[in-house]
Amino acid sequence: MRVDLFDFELPHERIALRPARPRDAARMLVVQGNGPFSDRHVSDLPDLIEPGDVLVFNDTRVIPAQLEGRRGEAKIGATLHKRIDLRRWQAFVRNAKRLRVGDVAEFGGGVTAIAEERLADGSFVLFFEGEEPVEVLLERAGTMPLPPYIAGKRPTDAQDREDYQTMFAREDGAVAAPTAALHFTDRLIAAIAERGIGTETLTLHVGAGTFLPVKADDTDDHQMHSEWGRIEQDAADRLNAVRERGNRVIAVGTTSLRLLESATGEDGIIRPFAGDTDIFITPGYTFRAIDGLMTNFHLPKSTLFMLVSALMGRERMQEAYAHAIAGEYRFYSYGDSSLLLP
């Protein structure tokens, strides 16, 4: 499909630079089938889904994966994208023309990395020197990797260490937050449990590729970056049981959705999964694992806007986004939410 079919105009003032407080006070646009749009709040979620339904969260934890440093006299920046092994990470490098294979980059605090390889997409394999775990080095030298549409408008600060992490964060490895779950609070989870709605977790380490624009003119020519994920056997069994009894599996976030769909066969059975996925969902895709999605508002011509268009229909989502823009909803990572129920 032509990528420009997924374009829309977004006023800059609609981009949220801080999250709502409290988190569950964010607004939520409910899009249900072809019915009228409903303007609600995230705190209303327990009233909008049924007892026996299950919400699926991503428990990945964002690491301080943004590094600023030098190679000799040249300033460079590195955004870690994907772990390769205990000491190696794939990274997008700013001012990459000043970095060559074999060079040592210095990131402050005694943190250094060797540029071991330059990959076909222009990214580098960085080998972090020393004996300390890379996570310890990043805590010392790194900052939270805010999306460019936020970082370009204000500096990252100490508050982002808390704001850009979900309450479910357990497994270190993401370089972008699964932002749909940023809206959840202990109070909201308690109300969900009281309503008889279940919760499950899986792990997908979100990569910086989630921010990359689609540069191709046609979706067939776009190459997705892979991300590592895991679904345990017992979680898969419980989710299969939910659907067998006629209830719904609702993904909280596109990351949860993409991993669930990657782990599900044509027979509709969710299976345990551990490995990379580069699934790219566009209109025409037949969903196998999920019955709904809670997600924030996404960028024009992005793979994520294509995904929600696959779920609800492209024209329907264009109408929903036009409604959200006119209604002054807040967009992107720190913005408001939507509940999509086809």
Comma- or semicolon-separated keywords:
QueA-like; about 20% helix; Thrombin, subunit H; alpha/beta; cytoplasm; 9-stranded mixed β-sheet; about 350 residues; 9 helices; EC 2.4.99.17
Provide structural commentary.
This protein has 342 residues and is of the alpha/beta class. The protein folds into 2 domains: 3-62 and 163-341, QueA-like, CATH 3.40.1780.10; 66-142, QueA-like (Thrombin, subunit H), CATH 2.40.10. Helix content is 22%, strand content 27%. The protein contains 9 helices and 17 strands. The strands form 3 sheets. The protein has a 9-stranded mixed β-sheet, with helices on one face. It has a 6-stranded antiparallel β-sheet with strand order 5-6-7-10-9-8, covered by helices on one side. It has a two-stranded parallel ribbon with strand order 4-11. It is globular. The mean pLDDT is 95.
